[in-house]
Specification:
alpha/beta; 3-stranded parallel beta sheet; NADH_UbQ_OxRdtase-like_20kDa; NADH:ubiquinone oxidoreductase-like 20kDa subunit domain-containing protein; quinone
Length: 93
């Protein structure tokens, strides 16, 4: 991952979306390790709590089990406007 193209001082928002499985965990942790201070948003029921697959052996029961999550947007699927509203609020400060 090349983070050199991100301007210094830029606010970075990372969205976890969809079913998160155990094989994905190292890549997610690596990506977020390259972006210290990034705001993490869990978008949708699967990313928030594992969704309907929460009891599968390979499914992570929500993004907060592997990284700090700053904001949760529930729904299956969540309305795109919910993410837009959250990002607009971040921009306004």
């Amino acid at each position: 991952m090349d983070v050199s193209s991100i301007p210094a001082g830029a606010r970075v928002v990372v969205t976890l979306s969809g079913t998160i499985t155990e094989p994905m965990v190292p890549a997610i942790r690596h990506a977020l390790g390259q972006l210290p201070g990034a705001t993490v948003v869990a978008f949708g029921a699967c990313a928030c709590v594992g969704g309907p697959y929460w009891d599968s052996y390979a499914v992570v029961k929500g993004g907060e089990e592997l990284v700090r999550v700053d904001h949760f947007i529930a729904g299956c699927p969540p309305p795109p406007s919910a993410l837009d509203e959250y990002l607009t609020g971040l921009r306004r400060g």
